C-alpha cells in the first residue's frame, strides 16, 4: 500500500505566513495628507454633504431672487459670485476626491491579494486534511481485512 506524502501542518505554516489585519497595515502606511484625502472622500460622498450643498444653493439663489433689491448681493440671473464659489469648490474637490478614490482602490487591491493568500492557505490545509482522512480510511480498511483474516483462521 502506497501512502502519498502528506504535508504536515507545520510545513503549511512555514510555507504560508499567517494573515495580518490588512486594514491596520494599510492605515499605518498612510501619510497625514493621504488620511486627509480619505477623510474628505468619505465625507463628501454622503447624503449629508449633498443636502448641505443643496441647502446652501437654494438659500443663496432664493435670497438673491426674492430678497429686496438693496439686500441682494449676487444679482439674478447671472449669479456670478455663486458660480465662482461653486466652481472653486468643484475645482478643489475633484482632484482630492480622485486621490482618495485611488487610495481606496489600492486598499481594495491589498485586501484582494490578502484574501487570495488566505484562500490558497485554506485550500492547502483542506487538501492535507482530505489526504489524512483518505489515508486513515485506507488504514482502517486494511485493519478490518486483517481482522477478517484472523477470524477466518479461527
Overview of the structural elements:
The chain is mainly alpha-helical and 154 residues long. The protein has one domain. Helices cover 79% and strands 0% of the residues. It is rod-shaped, with a radius of gyration of 33 Å. The two termini are 26 Å apart.
Helices and strands, with pairings:
Elements: H1 9-15, H2 22-28, H3 32-44, H4 47-66, H5 80-153
Helix pairs in contact: 3-5
First-last Cα distance? 26 Å
Q: How many H/I helices?
A: 5
Q: From the alpha-carbon coordinates, what is the Rg to the nearest angstrom?
A: 33 Å
Mean pLDDT: 88
**Quaternary state, please?**
single chain
Largest sheet: none
Q: Find the structural class using helix and strand composition.
A: mainly alpha
What key phrases describe this protein's structure?
154 residues, 0% strand, mainly alpha, 5 helices, rod-shaped
Short characterization:
Helix 3 (32-44) crosses helix 5.
Amino acid at each position: 500500500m502506497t501512502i502519498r506524502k502528506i504535508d504536515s501542518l507545520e510545513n503549511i505554516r512555514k510555507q504560508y505566513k499567517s494573515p495580518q489585519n490588512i486594514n491596520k497595515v494599510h492605515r499605518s502606511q498612510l501619510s497625514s495628507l493621504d488620511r486627509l484625502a480619505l477623510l474628505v472622500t468619505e465625507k463628501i460622498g454622503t447624503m449629508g454633504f449633498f443636502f448641505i450643498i443643496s441647502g446652501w444653493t437654494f438659500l443663496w439663489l432664493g435670497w438673491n431672487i426674492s430678497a429686496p433689491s438693496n439686500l441682494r448681493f449676487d444679482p439674478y440671473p447671472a449669479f456670478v459670485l455663486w458660480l465662482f464659489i461653486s466652481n472653486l469648490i468643484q475645482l478643489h474637490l475633484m482632484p482630492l476626491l480622485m486621490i482618495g478614490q485611488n487610495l481606496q482602490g489600492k486598499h481594495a487591491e491589498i485586501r484582494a491579494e490578502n484574501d487570495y493568500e488566505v484562500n490558497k492557505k485554506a485550500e492547502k490545509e483542506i487538501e492535507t486534511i482530505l489526504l489524512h482522512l483518505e489515508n486513515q480510511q485506507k488504514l482502517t480498511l486494511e485493519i478490518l481485512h486483517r481482522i477478517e483474516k484472523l477470524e477466518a483462521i479461527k
